[in-house]
Each structure stands twice: as C-alpha cells, then as structure tokens.
From TrEMBL, chain A:
Domain of life: Bacteria
CDD domains per the UniProt record, alphabetical: TM_PBP2
Annotated source species: Deinococcus aerolatus
Major subcellular site: membrane
Keywords: Cell membrane, Membrane, Transmembrane, Transmembrane helix, Transport
Protein name as annotated: Sugar ABC transporter permease
Membrane topology of this protein: Multi-pass membrane protein
Lineage: Bacteria, Thermotogati, Deinococcota, Deinococci, Deinococcales
UniProtKB/TrEMBL annotation, chain B:
Pfam families attached to this UniProt entry: BPD_transp_1
Organism: Deinococcus aerolatus
Name used for this protein in its record: ABC transporter permease
Primary site of residence: membrane
Domain ABC transmembrane type-1: 77-299
Family per similarity comment: Belongs to the binding-protein-dependent transport system permease family.
Length: 294, 310
C-alpha cells in the first residue's frame, strides 16, 4: 500500500459486453457452476425467511415446504413486535450508522481534497500515516479505546460508537476519495480560482463531481458499521444503546426455543440490509474494488 | 513593485490544516492513540491494591510462559492458523473460480454476482444462527436433505464435536465472506484488455488455457492483496465464533482463536476475572503477528511482484 501511483478507478465492474469470451461448451459448464454456488449462497437465507411464515409444527415437520394456507402464520412476528425493544435497537443502529457515515464522508473528503490538491511538505507522510489504519485493525486498540471512552464519559452512549466507526472508516475513505479527486481536471479548479473562488468554495464545487466515489465510500463503510458486534458489546451494551445486531444476539439467546419468533426476528434483521444492498450494489462493488486495489 | 512581490509571498496555508484536521484528529485520538496506549498498558501491572507501575515485559513472559496463560494462547494461535488455512484453501480458490466464471461475460453475470455477495452483507449474528439451525440435528434439515441423497453418515453434530467445530466454523466464515475475494479478483480480471482474449480465441484456446496463460499471470498482484486481507481479517476475527459458540469458544476451547481469547482475557469469564493488562498483552501479541505477516508480505511477495512488472 503505497501512497503514490494511485490511478482513478472506473465506477463499474464487469460491464456486460456482447460476446462471451469462451466457447459454448465452457459457457454451459460455467452457468452450471454459477447456479450451484448461487443456490448454496442464497438457500440458507431463503430457508429462514420462508419458515418464519409457517407454524411451529411445519417448521419442524417440513422445513423445505413452502407455506400453504394451512401452515401460514404471523405468530412469530407478533411475538417479536410485542416482546422486544426492536424499534429502539433499530433506531440506535440507524443513528450510529448515519452519524458515522456523515462524519466519515465529511472528514475524509476534506482530507482527500487537501492531499490531492496541494503540495506541502507533509503531504506524503500524512497519506502514509492515515493509510496505516487500512491494514491495522482498530480492534487491537480496544483496551485503550474503552479507557478513553470511560475518561470522556462516553461509555453507553451512541457517540462512543460513532467516533470509533469514524476512526475506523476514515483511512480507506481517504484513500479511495484521494484517487478519485486526482481525476478531477485541474482546469476546472484553476478557472474557479481565477473567478475569485476561495479554497473552501472550490472544495464545495468538487464534491458533487465525485458523487460516485462518495456513494462507493458510503456503501463499503456502511456494512461493517451496521453489522459490527464487537464494539457495541464493549462500549454500549446498555439496554438503551444496544444496536440491532447486539439486540438480536441477546434475543436469540432468550427465545431460542420459540422458533417462530426467532425466525421472524432473523427475517426482520435480514430484509432491510438486503434491500439496502440491492439498491447500493453497484456502488458497493466499485467501492470495494476501488479501495483495495491500487 | 516591492508591494507586489511582498503580496506574492504566500501566507501560512491555514486552509490545508483546516481540511486535514478533522480526519487526522479523530483518527489519531480514537485509533492510533488507543493502540499505543494499549501497548503501553501491556507493559504495566498493578498489585491487588497497589498503584499501577511499569513491569517491562513481565506480562508477556506470563502470557508466553505461565501455565494459566500459555496453554490457551498457543491453543488460540494454533486454531487461528487452521482458521486462516481453511480460508486460504477454500475461500480464495473458490472465490477466484467464481470470479473467472463471472469474467466469461455470460448472460446474467450481474445477477449471479449480486446473489453470490448477499451472505457477505448479512450480520454475523444472523449467519451464525442460520447455520446453527441448519446444522442442528433437531431441526430435521440435515435429515430432510441428506437422507434422500443417501448421505446419512453426514448427519453429525458438526459444531459440537471438538474435532469438527473449528473446520465447520471456518467453512461457515468462508461461505459468508467468499464474495470479497470474488469481487477483488473480478475487478482485476475485467481490466485485462480484450485484445488478449481475441488473440487467444484465434489460437483456439479454451477456458482453461485462457485462465492459465492470460488471466492468472495478470492478476497475481491481486492474489497477494487478497491473501493479506484474509490474513489480517482472520487473525482479528471474533464475531462469528462468539455468536455461534459464545465467549468460551467451545467445545472445550476447540474453536478458540485470538479474538475470543482477547475478549475473555480482557473481560473475564466464569471464575477468572478480567485483566486489562493481560488483555492489552494479548492485543500486543495479535498486533505483532499481524505486523509480522504484513512485513513478510511486503518484503517477499510485493517486492517480487514489482520486479516482475519492471
């Protein structure tokens, strides 16, 4: 991971070009392989969703059967809706994720602008310093982070999580955004300077131009934040600050015998993420590939 | 004239500081400082009611040498190596295979890609529970699937046996994370210029030859990066094992890796109280392993790759 020589990364991956690059026989084999793996990847999840709509008896009796009018029930969803703090946990996850994303995007785009736009003595060094965080996991600082949050009286607040996820997300975001900003034509900025625009104004003008990159950073940062279990467990395990992942893990322990409720809770936790993923899928792909490859 | 030259001298570029400050500040205070503070703490100790004091490498000696700590630590390191090996042998080759299949530009490639990546998007809590349920002998999924296929012998409590728990968890993790190497390999593959494929087609090359002679050599740098990402991710893993087997990483610590050991040492479990100094020392060991791996990659693989490029 060196700071130099970063090329702007195109935003789409595998554009479907007209002609497959292999012969017919290989194509058929490839389709078979892909179908097999796709089934393997999706069936376990579909099994959960499907069974969440069935009665307890048929969940056990015929796990592979689709719900029929006789076996269909919303019992599990009723249990979940009445017994857990799911809406609160959901809101906590939402606040933490949106808060961290907003901070990551703001701080990283500012830093990336400075690193890509100006030549100053500490430029390369700052870039390298920030990129340490791409490879060294923030979890190794957990003892120090907990002590810091205790000192700042932030334990059991959502702010603790927001700050940690921002620190965790900034290195990769700066890396991706810097390479995109280098691709913005210089003439544009010079023209704005001649028109008398200040440096902050020019930063504001650049932002809309790198919207695809901001989307990519949002998509790659979002998933690990939403899904994290470690930091909520350590920094915010209180009933009022639990995230949905932590809440779901507690819920699973508590209702482990009520399969209706468990499967419904799981389905509720799966659907929002999958919907978001389908919406952001393209940005996610370009974000992952743009971030990890030089 | 003098007025103009004086004007032309630049004032201190405060705007650069303003642009960099928020990112550098949060990153330094919440990430770099805690990691360093953690390392510093691993060199401290405190007697039962005494003040904190510097202890040098005493914690590390205890961690590596005393019976109470050394046995679990080496067990966790061993398990972690197995966990990593499973990913290198199953996740990355299969991820590469999928990427190659997707790079053939078949009809519906985008749909396959989206669906193959879905498990990666889901929370580990969900993944863990889904697989616990599927592998649970009481649910009948195993029986409903295996008996028709004549594979009753596979109906085992895979997560409950000390010999199979860790490989099973490794494969669940592979199942979830395979989308990441797949995407990284695919991104490298789509950059291969079309002319190379056209030339290969004119020579009558089949899928295997195209892979061996064109695709694999050109994406070798990505293979290196994927290995490093897998290494760092695996030696830092925690969530899946904790979700499926709990903090004790059962059965009988058969699935204990460094992440779960770190959690237990820091927070305590059952009769053993948590110890932040020893916890910090475990983190220190993890950091050392990860940095050693990164360094090894940089001086061997990375260097050789750049030489090849030149």
């Amino acid at each position: 991971m060196t700071a130099g020589g970063i090329a702007p990364v195109e935003t789409t991956v595998a554009p479907v070009r007209e002609k497959p690059i292999v012969g017919r026989g290989t194509q058929v084999l490839a389709h078979l392989g892909l179908i097999l793996f796709t089934l393997l990847a999706t069936l376990p999840t579909l099994l959960i969703i499907m069974n969440s709509f069935k009665t307890q008896l048929s969940i056990f009796g015929q796990p592979f059967a689709l719900p029929t009018p006789e076996t269909f029930t919303l019992e599990g969803y009723r249990t979940v809706a009445t017994s857990a703090n799911f809406p609160l946990f959901f809101l906590n996850s939402l606040l933490v994720t949106l808060g961290s994303l907003a901070l990551i995007l703001l701080c990283s785009s500012m830093a990336a602008f400075a690193l890509s736009e100006y030549r100053f003595r500490l430029n390369t060094l700052t870039g390298l310093y920030l990129s340490i965080g791409i490879m060294v996991p923030i979890r190794l600082g957990t003892v120090g982070i907990l002590n810091l949050m205790v000192d700042l009286h932030l334990v059991n607040t959502l702010w603790a999580l927001i700050l940690v996820y921002t620190a965790q997300g900034v290195p990769l975001a700066v890396f991706v955004l810097t390479s995109f900003m280098r691709g913005v034509p210089r003439d544009l900025k010079e023209a704005a300077r001649i028109d008398g625009a200040g440096e902050y104004r020019i930063y504001g003008l650049i932002l809309p131009l790198i919207r695809p990159a901001l989307g990519a950073v949002t998509a790659i940062s979002m998933i690990p934040i939403w899904n994290d279990l470690w930091f909520p467990l350590i920094l915010a395990p209180g009933e009022k600050t639990k995230t949905i992942v932590l809440g779901a893990s507690m819920f699973l322990g508590q209702f482990v015998n009520d399969y209706n409720a468990v499967l419904s809770a799981l389905t509720l936790a799966i659907v929002p993420v999958v919907v978001l993923y389908v919406i952001f899928s393209r940005q996610l792909v370009s974000g992952i590939t743009g971030g990890a490859l030089k | 004239m003098t007025y103009l030259t004086r004007r032309a001298r630049r004032p201190f570029p405060w705007h650069i500081v303003v642009f960099l400050a928020p990112a550098v500040l949060i990153y330094t205070v919440v990430m770099i400082y805690p990691i360093l503070a953690s390392l510093w703490l691993s060199l401290q100790t405190r007697a039962a009611d005494g003040p904190e004091h510097f202890a040098g490498l005493a914690n590390y000696r205890r961690l590596l040498g005393s019976e109470l700590y050394a046995q679990p630590l080496w067990n966790a390191v061993r398990n972690n190596v197995v966990f990593f090996a499973i990913h290198m042998l199953a996740q990355n080759p299969v991820g590469l295979l999928l990427a190659v299949l997707l790079s053939f530009r078949l009809r519906g490639s985008a749909v396959y890609r989206t669906l193959l990546f879905t498990p990666t998007v889901l929370s580990v809590v969900i993944i863990g529970f889904v697989w616990k349920l599927i592998l649970n002998p009481a649910w009948g999924v195993q029986r409903g699937l295996l008996e028709p296929l004549g594979l009753q012998a596979l109906d085992q409590p895979w997560l409950g046996l000390p010999g199979t728990a860790l490989p099973t968890l490794g494969l669940i993790s592979v199942w979830q994370n395979i989308g990441i190497p797949m995407l990284l390999f695919l991104a490298a593959l789509v950059r291969i210029p079309d002319e190379l494929y056209e030339a290969a087609r004119l020579d009558g090359a089949g899928g295997w030859t195209i892979f061996r002679r064109i695709q694999l050599p050109l994406i070798l740098p990505t293979v290196g990066i994927v290995s490093v990402l897998t290494f760092v991710g695996n030696f830092n893993a925690f969530d899946l094992i904790y979700s499926v087997q709990g903090a004790l990483a059962g059965p009988n610590f058969a699935s204990d890796i460094l992440g779960t050991l770190f959690y237990r040492t820091f927070f305590g479990y059952q009769l053993q109280p948590g110890d932040e100094y020893m916890g910090a020392a475990v983190a220190g060991v993890m950091l050392t392993i990860i940095l050693a791996g990164l360094l090894l990659y940089l001086v061997t693989v990375q260097r050789r790759l750049t030489e090849v490029e030149l």
